[in-house]
Structure formats: C-alpha cells, structure tokens
Amino acid sequence: MEEQAGKKKVVVLGGGVAGSLVAKSLQFHAQVTLIDPKEYFEITWASLRSMVEPSFAERSVINHRDYLINGNIITSNAVDVTETEVLTADGHRIAFDYLVIATGHADYVPINRRERLDQFKDANKKIKSANSIMIIGGGPTGVELAAEIAVDFPDKKVIIVHKGPRLLDFVGPKAAEKTLKWLESKKVVVKLEQSIDLDELTEGQKRYRTSNGEFVEADCYFLCSGKPLGSAWLEETMMKHDLDDDGRIKVDERLRVNGRTNIFAIGDITDIPELKQGFAAQQHAEVVVKNLKVIIDGGRECSQCRMETYKPQFVMAIVSLGRREAVAQLPLLTIIGRVPGFLKSGDLFVGRTRKQMGLHPDIVHD
Ligand SMILES: Cc1cc2nc3c(=O)[nH]c(=O)nc-3n(C[C@H](O)[C@H](O)[C@H](O)COP(=O)(O)OP(=O)(O)OC[C@H]3O[C@@H](n4cnc5c(N)ncnc54)[C@H](O)[C@@H]3O)c2cc1C
Where does the FAD/NAD(P)-binding domain lie (predicted)? Predict the structure, then answer.
C-alpha cells in the first residue's frame, strides 16, 4: 500500500453510491483507501435498462480506478474493525485515522466489470428468447423491470407476482394505484397478495405455483426481491452495539456513529429515518466529505461547531416506467407520465452521476 507522508488516513468501506463518492472527493485531501469486494462502482438505477439494452451498462458500470486515481483500492470484504484498523477477508490490515462505513447492501455480483457487463448480455438473451416472463417482487426493481420489458418488447407477456397488497409499498397508495393502471394498460398481469416459494424455483420450470394455489406459466423468471443489508459482518465486531434491531448503524446528525468521533456511516446502512435511496446516499456522502475536510484541516475537537448536520429527506421518489414515462411521489403530490419521465427515464441520471464522479458523461475508456 502506498504511504502519503503527513496525510490523514481515511478508509472507506463499500464502493457503492455513497462510499465511491466519498473516496473520489477526498482523494487529494487525505490518504484514501477504498475497500470493496468488486473492482467497480455500479449506478444501480441503470441496471434494469441494462437488461433490455446491455450497452447501457458500459457507462453505468465504472471501474473504481477510473475515478479514484490517487487512492488505494483493496478488492475484498471488510470482516473486522477495531478503533484504528480494518481487517479484510484477504488478510489486509489497514490502519485509519477516520473510517467511513458505506456497506449498504450485500450483492452477489461478479468481481470484474467485464463479467458484470456479460451478465447484462445474458439477461438480455434470456428476455429476448422468452415469450412470457415472470417477475417476482413488485417493489421499485420489479416494477421498473416489468416496465422496461413492456415498453421495449410489447409482444412479450409479463407477469408480476407480489406478496404485498399493493405495488411500490415504499411510496403512497396513489402512486401504487396509478402504476398498476399504467402497467395493466401495457398488458402486464399483476398478481397481488401471492408469493412464489423460492426454495422450489428452478430455471426452465415454466409452470409456477403461487401461494394461493394459482399457476403462472412463464418461459423464464427474474427475482426482484430486496437484498440483505451489508452489516452482518459488524455483528461480531466491537461495533455490534452500534447496530439497531434491523441491523442498521445508529448515527448522529453529523453522520458519525453514535458516541464515536472518528467513525462515520452513510447510505442505506444507516438508521436515518427516510427512504433508502441513492440520492439520499449521495447527500450523506457530501456531508461527510465536508465534515472530514473540516476535521482534517482544523483538528477533531476545535472543529465540532463547524461540522455540517444532515436533515432526513422528505418522502420523494421517481420510479421510471420505460424510456419516457415515470411515476413520481412528491411530498404533496403524485404524478405519472411524461413529466416525471422527462426528469429520469431517458438517461436515468447516468450522465449526471458520471459527472459527479469526475468522469465524462458519455465517453468511456476501456
Ligand atoms: C435495482 C435498483 C434500482 C434503484 N433505483 C434507484 C433510483 O432510481 N433512485 C434512487 O435514489 N435509488 C435507487 N436505488 C437505491 C440505491 O441504489 C441505494 O439507495 C444506494 O445504492 C445506496 O447506496 P450505498 O452506498 O449506501 O449502498 P450500496 O450502493 O448498496 O453499496 C454498498 C457497497 O458496499 C459493498 N460492501 C458490502 N459489504 C461489504 C463489506 N463487508 N466490505 C466492503 N464492502 C462491502 C458492496 O459491494 C457495495 O459496493 C435502487 C436500487 C436498486 C438495487
């Protein structure tokens, strides 16, 4: 590992939306080490478009080295933490002055960018070769995937099986109702309050029994259920008491882990009472970058008063519905159609996110 004399050591755990932005933003201010089990940062909200159009992923799957040109990268999982060190699964012991935990959700994706791009190509082949497709889960991921397929491949039959009483249960019922009508207008079949036994699923099965005894016929399926939080590894560490009952890290308003002065936590892993979304994770990252700059420049104690605080976001979300439309949940309003679609659904904020990471919005160097 490279040493940069005199600079404070900042270790960032997790190269997702929040952690990558912190690492990129502090790389010339501190000696930064990013620890992530994969070699790339992925703009998650582009992943469903990438399944219907695999070349879309060329811009949204970004090698860490492309934006982190002045930092150390360790491709491994963090498995233990002390007051001053992190231990990784591959045996590295990394000392820190400041630690930022951003291990959001654990995902089982390839280590290498090329292999991740190939996964999208495989998903695309699977969609193209099927006449009927079952989507398990009617949250934002399942709804966005169903809409992408319905818009790009209108002749394919799409069936969503969702165990809850309505789609998109993270936003209000009006948004869910409007989305259901939109999907049905595209001939998507939605089966609510039914589930599929995941233990009995096999690829190529073609006929699936739902929890209430109905059968769904489909040439293939996609599982769009939630991913586990990336905090299980902390349960056996000195930070086990910093977790709430759901496994989220308890943070104060400056986004430090409660009661700790040199460990911050940001993104989906935190107990901040708001919707867990990428744009909130980016805001957390910006607050922590400012606070770490204040601390590093001014010393930990004297800088307390100049540190920024974070206010939880209002309930606000945009779920894209194919290439032109979307449904938006705003604090006092729900809108569906081209207006919210204009904001999100064309480029899915990929160009904007790339710029935020210091990269050209369109040009990708292999
Ligand atoms: C399909 C999909 C679509 C979405 N669409 C939107 C959207 O349209 N708008 C929006 O605002 N949000 C959206 N989200 C939510 C958004 O992606 C998350 O809120 C955001 O990714 C949270 O960022 P994070 O950095 O906290 O966690 P993540 O992005 O989950 O990153 C966590 C990182 O930590 C790594 N990690 C895990 N465990 C360890 C460990 N032990 N050691 C080291 N590294 C570890 C993971 O590999 C990963 O790189 C979507 C999510 C998904 C899955």
Answer: 8-277
pTM, 2 dp: 0.96
For residue 90 the two structure tokens come to 């591959």
Of 11, 12, 13, 17, the one to substitute when testing ligand 1's pocket (max ligand atoms within 8 A of C-beta) is: 17
Residues with CB under 6 A from ligand 1: 13-19, 35-38, 44-45, 47-48, 77-78, 102-107, 140-141, 230, 233, 267-269, 276-279, 281
- Tell me how many degrees the CA angle 361-139-273 measures, rounded to the nearest 5: 80
Domain 9-37+76-107+227-309, classified CATH 3.40.50.12710, yes or no = no
Ligand 1 atom with least separation from CA of 224: 1
Q: For 275-310, what is each residue's pLDDT tens digit?
A: 999 999 999 999 999 999 999 987 655 556 689 999
Ligand 1: residue of 34, 44, 116 to mutate (most ligand atoms within 8 A of CB) is: 44
The pair of structure tokens assigned to 13 is 């755990």
- Where along the chain do its domains lie? 9-37+76-107+227-309
Q: What is the distance between the alpha carbons of residues 145 and 242, in angstroms, rounded to a whole number?
A: 35
Q: What pLDDT does residue 29 have?
A: 96
Is the distance from CB of 338 to CB of 325 less than 8 angstroms? Answer: yes
CA distances from 12 to 23, 107, 136, 227, 310 (A): 7, 18, 34, 21, 19
Question: Which residues, given as ranges, of the chain have pLDDT below 70?
Answer: 1-3, 299-305
